[in-house]
Write a structure and sequence with these properties.
The structure is a homodimer of 336-residue chains. Chain A folds into 3 domains: 2-44, 434 Repressor (Amino-terminal Domain); 55-153 and 289-319, Response regulator (Rossmann fold), CATH 3.40.50; 155-287, Response regulator (Rossmann fold). In chain A, 44% of the residues lie in helices and 16% in strands. The first copy, chain A, is built from 13 helices and 12 strands. Chain A has helices at 2-8, 12-19, 27-39, 46-53, 69-84, 97-106, 125-132, 155-168, 186-202, 220-231, 245-257, 275-279, 289-305, and strands at residues 58-63, 88-93, 115-118, 138-141, 150-153, 174-178, 212-214, 239-242, 267-272, 283-286, 314-317, 320-322. Chains A and B meet through α4, α5, β2, α6 and α11 of A and α4, α5, β2, α6 and α11 of B. β2 (88-93) of chain A pairs antiparallel with β2 (88-93) of chain B. Chain A binds a DNA duplex (16 and 16 nucleotides) through α2 and α4.
DNA sequence: ATGAAAGCGCTAACAA
DNA sequence: TTGTTAGCGCTTTCAT
């Protein structure tokens, strides 16, 4: 910056003022400074600025992985918002518990970001408590965190609506398939199972734990085994509600291999509405991670810029059932 | 840090040394400092450090989007590597040309990162030139950049192998479908088409521009139209090589709707080997973005830490054809 | 409208 | 092994 100042024949203060777009700079000087800066290929060091302003100009995101439809959509949607506010996005990827422990051990975001976006969906209370002490706004995405700003969908209600759809089609034996082993998803998963159960209870259908199975979506063998368990029941299900599209699609694939027609002999319902859902003609409960990302971005922005923004604002996003071809009336039933 | 020093009864330098794990600190003092730091919930400000060390401790990534299999896999794989080296990852998402222009206009990474990973696959020469002046290592991922460190696959050779597979199956009318409108993919796209053409030429099959069509994978209508064009030809193709799995899968979906059996009446070949490929039983040319991410990470690490690392190292990653059920001998042909 | 000077939190000589 | 001191590149009073 000193170089720029010298070249433009002004002081560093003036350069600083100009580059930050402050008003009290004469047009003449402004032009000179900008020219000099350009000529020297100068860019302000955020690090030096942040040292004195106390603001870092970065938003941190704690994510379990980047390798998923949800995270990709959410963060992609977030990007433009942050850029518009001249904020950078730094991402902490913690694919396993060890990495996450390391994050919480050192809390590198502390003092190195203006806000934190948490995309881990199964924080322990202790972890949340540590985040409370971070001294910066922490926004929880895709989970409802009491007394803290959060953006989420009502997973329980959404799952309930999904199961109702199956009930309306006349299904009474409805299995629920969870995506086992996916660290970081248990919060939503739990809520969805609860919603599913609630719908069943409301319809007077007895709960049956043998109808709840689990398998990682990517593990075809595990999915096949889970399916085997269900089919081996004395009274096998006529429909399966998979808590994620990827799992649902994996299940459909497995069913096809076993020559079990979908939806004729087995209805399959998903959750998410990923692009693959349409390709598999999968009925599913849609949510929009892109909207979540945007809302979270706006929330974070307001929290950073406006000191008396509601520090516990909740944004509840809608879900909706998308009927496609993977669900049909139970055998011997009329359409609803 | 002053607080920690006071609490531990030592000077700030000692605290600094301790927290950076330097050796010349007595065990006793080390323990006191660590205790004090913990008690005060202290974390070093990277910004202040970087001001004096000149190293920022962050690696920047310029990406067209986060919302794709390729980017997700690559960046997810990169994460642990960077974390192990105590580096942060900041992501610049530039979904459109305007955003990208803004990035190049301000080059925010300058002085705010120790290295840059470029995942945009269609940089102009001018853009590359600007990156050369950045004063930090710039690693190109998924593209071969002359004289600059890059990690990539040989798209041309890979596509050539793909087309050869179709030729071996007896196909002679082979269409090539590009994913139109996907900003940031034209480099690979171009190379793949070249490789395809080369294989045809080598086999003595005449090139026919009417067999090259384009459509965005997500736009079903456009895919249907492109397919229509091909089917409307006097001599329609018996196989289609889609330059991406998503497009291939979208095409298969469209073919099914039109009651054109795959592979009986039309073979379809993809490129990538995304998870969806297996679900659609798609024969495809596999590449591994996760490996690319890892290699890029290691390259970047070596460039940052080792001043005399080869500044133009190239890492060429393998691809391989994965035969599945979406390709079959052309009608009237024997298997190869 | 502009400049001089102090200081943000840290690290890196240098001294002790 | 530890402490003292001088900046790193900026922003921000406070003068002018």
């Amino acid at each position: 910056m000193a170089d720029v100042a010298e070249r433009a024949g002004v002081s560093v203060s003036t350069v600083s003022r100009t580059l930050r777009g402050l008003s009290n700079v004469s047009p003449d000087v402004r032009a000179r400074v900008e020219k000099a800066a350009r000529a020297l290929n100068f860019a302000v060091s955020r690090h030096a600025s942040s040292l004195v302003t106390g603001r870092t100009g970065v938003v941190a995101a704690l994510v379990p992985t980047l390798d998923s439809w949800f995270m990709g959509s959410a963060l992609s949607a977030l990007g433009p918002l942050l850029r518009a506010a001249d904020l950078e996005l730094t991402v902490y990827v913690t694919p396993d518990l060890a990495e996450r422990a390391a994050f919480f051990e050192r809390l590198p975001a502390r003092r190195n970001a203006d806000a934190l976006l948490v995309f881990c969906f199964d924080l322990t209370d202790e972890e949340s408590a540590r985040l409370d002490d971070l001294g910066m706004p922490v926004v929880y995405v895709s989970q409802h965190a009491d007394g803290r700003p959060s953006v989420y969908v009502d997973d329980g209600a959404a799952a309930r609506a999904g199961t109702r759809h199956l009930l309306n089609l006349g299904h009474r034996r409805i299995a629920f398939m969870q995506s086992a082993g996916a660290t970081g998803f248990s919060f939503s998963s739990h809520e969805r199972l609860l919603g599913h159960r609630r719908a069943l209870t409301e319809a007077g259908v007895p709960l049956d734990d043998s109808l709840v199975v689990a398998a990682p979506a990517a593990d075809r063998r595990a999915v096949a085994e889970a399916l085997g368990e269900l089919l081996g029941l004395r009274e096998p299900p006529t429909a399966v509600f998979a808590e994620q599209d990827e799992l649902a699609v994996s299940l459909i694939w497995t069913l096809r291999r076993s020559r079990i027609e979908v939806p004729e002999r087995m209805s399959v319902l998903g959750f998410d509405d990923q692009p693959v859902a349409e390709l598999f003609d999968l009925t599913t409960v849609a949510q929009s991670p892109a909207d979540m990302g945007r809302e979270a971005g706006e929330l974070v922005l307001s929290l950073i810029t406006d000191p008396d923004a509601d520090p516990a604002r909740h944004v509840l996003l809608p879900t909706r059932l998308i009927p496609r071809g993977s669900t049909a009336p139970a055998i011997g039933e009329e359409t609803d």
